[in-house]
From TrEMBL, chain A:
It comes from the Bacteria. The keyword Methyltransferase does not apply. Pfam families: Complex1_30kDa (PF00329), Complex1_49kDa (PF00346). This is Ni,Fe-hydrogenase III large subunit. PANTHER family: FORMATE HYDROGENLYASE SUBUNIT 5-RELATED, HYDROGENASE-4 COMPONENT G. The lineage of its organism: Bacteria, Pseudomonadati, Pseudomonadota, Gammaproteobacteria, Chromatiales. Residues 65-151 form the NADH:ubiquinone oxidoreductase 30kDa subunit domain.
Automatic annotation (TrEMBL), chain B:
InterPro entries: Complex_I_20kDa-like, NADH_UbQ_OxRdtase-like_20kDa. Keywords: 4Fe-4S, Iron, Iron-sulfur, Metal-binding. This is NADH-quinone oxidoreductase subunit B family protein. The keyword Iron applies.
Length: 529, 172
């Protein structure tokens, strides 16, 4: 079936008299947008699943003390459909989408913990996700009456009685890991059910770095929101800031100058290269190949020093502002950067050549941590996790936003094997693709302003969609009557990539967990919010 | 194998051969750091790092300390896996309430004398996140802090300077 047709078909089915969805124009940046009665929320998921669409996330929004709006985004390879419904705060019940789309399990529980939406038919019932013990089950931080400061709970106890699913049987034992890990990494808890060395089951428990980002966003102005977005997850600082800025600009109907868009893409591709280099090194390190690690870390360090020199920050934080970018590129910079790209390409040719066929490395990476194509599809994985398992979706190609709609793009990088090696190869090829893009962006850099002022539009609402280095990244922004932020929800690709880790580890040995984990590299901060 | 040796040879010793001004400063700092570590900690300082709600930025820069340019280990400073082996605790993030207890337990597991370094604006004073229903608002709200390294995130050089300050403090 042609997939554009599948979006149109679904729209047709939903707007048929039996269901009665109506088109609504409330959210800028996504078309079509349909409002449907709460009673048909479950049917929506069934129809979308039948149409072969991907679930790209669900989130809730407290419109006032009495009404909650719930929105779900569905993706076809070349377009999106946003569906929304409303429930009352007193009876906030909706059918769960998780039975059809297991990838939205945690997103639904996040909406449950923070806004009190009950998803009926959710396979885990009402088990909490983002909430540990910092606030009671009966209150919801994103409801209007809840103060940012909370209720001064005193010492917050550990979340000791979270119900982990256990396996029983002769010789089955449990390995608990975290939240504080052995290395310099973010906190999370992993519970392995193991027999001998083989992993029979892995359950992730995250939420440890929940900082209340969505609550912090409420009441901010545009500049404050973009600064916050840059800190949702530092490794995706540009991607989150861009998605938030794009959502704001769409909500306010602001046209960003062409030069600013080019500079944003330049920043985003630099972020991609830095992180891919870091991950390639990390994968090498996790199988004891320290040569690969040390080469990649020094390349990354040079890259970050150039970030500081030409863009003002090693991690490119706060380089984006609403309406454009914060700093222009010096006149001499393009030439020097193109030179640096050529130099990196030269070094990488030798390095990647080694990483590609070094027998000890192949022994560890090939056939390790296989994520099957169908599982990746069912979960809705994007980025290198999806691409490593044959899913080509890449926003820059399939739903290109400016400036990517004006660039010459090679086809997205895809590998079929789904193992750690495939995810590493995707990264290596994407580094080269980004270097090409960077050269192209510099060669075609338009003249003109680097920012325009954003005219805040009261009650505006917009959706930002950006291809971050981890994959498809979404941001929803809704403004209130004073044009301050009423709702900000950043949907990191890690929401869908983390569950993939629980699947791809099965049947592998415990000592291969670090490298499997690194090959997925889900963001903790990006999903704990 | 030859390709690897070739690549290594071509890469050379970056830690010494680069003459950017900040590398010169690093060298000075490094020598000073080495002296302090020798004098006060029996030639080695073990650090346990805990992310208590960071956005990950501070961790990226702490990781950078291990790369060939900074090579922190040459000064006798190492990151260790267990708090029981640690002389110092390096904490990032505004201490999310969900990490509060884990941080306290990690600190308790360290042998005395122990000292605590708060790295990054969030850890020093709450930074962008501050105190809220979800965050304690700074490391010293939960455990005593000896040294603060500001920055969002602090650069690797700032971190090394901060470690120097920590060593001086620990001697007091
Ligand atoms: S100080 Fe900055 S980089 Fe460090 S955790 Fe806080 S926001 Fe992130």
């Amino acid at each position: 079936m042609n997939v554009t047709d599948s979006l149109a078909d679904l729209q047709g089915l939903l707007t048929a008299p039996g269901i009665g969805a109506t088109a609504c124009a409330g959210v800028a940046g996504v078309e079509p947008c349909l409002a449907l009665p709460a009673a048909h929320w479950g049917l929506l998921a069934e129809l979308a699943a039948d149409a072969g669409l991907r679930h790209a996330g669900v989130w809730a929004d407290a419109l006032d003390a009495d009404r909650l709006r719930v929105q779900a985004l569905f993706a076809a390879p070349d377009g999106y459909l946003l569906a929304q419904t409303e429930v009352t705060s007193a009876h906030p019940e909706l059918a769960s989408h998780t039975p059809c789309f297991p990838g939205v399990d945690r997103l639904e529980r996040h909406a449950q913990d923070l806004l009190g939406v009950r998803f009926v038919g959710h396979p885990r019932g009402t088990v909490r996700w983002t909430r540990h013990q910092a606030w009671p089950e009966t209150v919801h931080p994103l409801r209007p009456g809840f103060p940012l400061a909370g209720k001064a709970p005193g010492r917050t106890p550990a979340d000791a009685d979270y119900p982990i699913v256990r396996l029983q049987g002769n010789g089955v034992f449990e390995v608990p890991v975290g939240p504080v890990h052995a290395g310099v990494i973010a906190p999370g808890h992993f519970r392995f059910q193991v027999m001998g060395e083989d992993v029979l089951r892995l359950e992730e428990r995250l939420g440890y770095v929940h900082k209340g980002i969505e609550k912090h966003a409420v009441g901010r102005d545009a500049a404050g929101l973009v600064r916050l977005a840059a800190r949702v997850a530092a490794d995706s600082s540009v991607a989150h800031a861009w998605a938030a800025a794009q959502a704001l600009e769409r909500a306010c109907g602001t046209e960003v100058p062409a030069r600013a868009l080019h500079l944003r893409a330049l920043l985003a591709e630099r972020e991609r290269v830095a992180n891919h280099l870091g991950d390639i090194g990390g994968i090498c390190n996790d199988v004891g190949f320290s040569f690969g690690q040390s080469q990649c870390t020094l390349l990354r360090e040079r890259w970050q020093r150039d970030n500081a020199t030409y863009f003002g920050h090693r991690l490119l934080m706060d380089t984006l502002v609403p309406g454009g970018v914060a700093q222009d590129l010096a006149a001499t910079a393009p030439e020097r950067l193109i030179h640096a790209h050529a130099e990196l390409r030269r070094v990488l040719r030798g390095l990647f050549d080694i990483l590609d066929d070094h027998p000890p490395l192949n022994d560890r990476l090939l056939t390790t941590g296989i994520l099957k194509h169908d599982t990746a599809r069912l979960l809705g994985c994007t980025g290198y996790v999806g691409k490593g398992s044959g899913l080509a979706h890449d926003l820059r190609h399939h739903a290109p936003y400016a400036p990517y709609d004006r660039l010459q793009l090679a086809a997205p990088v895809v590998e079929q094997e789904g193992d750690v090696a495939a995810r590493m190869r995707v990264r290596m090829r994407e580094v080269h693709a980004s270097l090409e893009l960077l050269d192209q962006l510099l060669a075609t850099l338009p003249e003109g302003a680097i920012a325009t002022s954003l005219m805040p539009r009261p009650e505006g609402c917009g959706l930002g969609l950006v291809e971050g280095w981890r994959g498809e990244l979404v941001a929803l922004v809704r403004l209130d009557a004073e044009a301050r932020v009423a709702r900000y929800f950043p949907r990191d690709p890690s929401w869908f990539n983390w569950p993939a880790l629980e699947h791809l580890i099965l049947g592998n040995i415990v000592p291969d967990f670090p490298v499997c984990n690194k090959s997925v590299n889900g963001s903790y901060s990006g999903v704990d919010l | 194998m030859f390709r690897i040796l070739n690549q290594v040879a071509r890469t050379g010793m970056l830690t010494e051969s680069v003459e950017r001004p900040d590398d010169a400063r690093l060298e000075r700092l490094g020598i000073e750091l080495r002296r302090q570590v020798d004098a006060r900690f029996g030639h080695s300082l073990m650090i346990r790092e805990v992310d208590a709600g960071s956005c990950g930025g501070c961790e990226i820069e702490i990781h950078a300390l291990a790369n060939a340019y900074y090579d922190l280990e040459r000064f006798g400073i190492r990151f260790c896996a267990s708090p029981r082996h640690a002389d110092a605790l390096l904490v990032t993030g505004p201490v999310s309430r969900h990490m509060e207890q884990a941080l306290r337990r990690t600190w308790r597991a360290m042998p005395a004398p122990k000292f605590v370094i708060a790295a990054g604006d969030c850890a020093c004073d709450g930074g962008e996140f501050g105190e809220s229903y979800a965050c304690c608002g700074a490391v010293d709200r939960v455990i005593p802090v000896d040294v603060r390294i500001p920055g969002c995130p602090p650069t690797p050089l700032c971190l090394i300077e901060g470690l120097l300050a920590a060593l001086a403090r620990a001697a007091d």
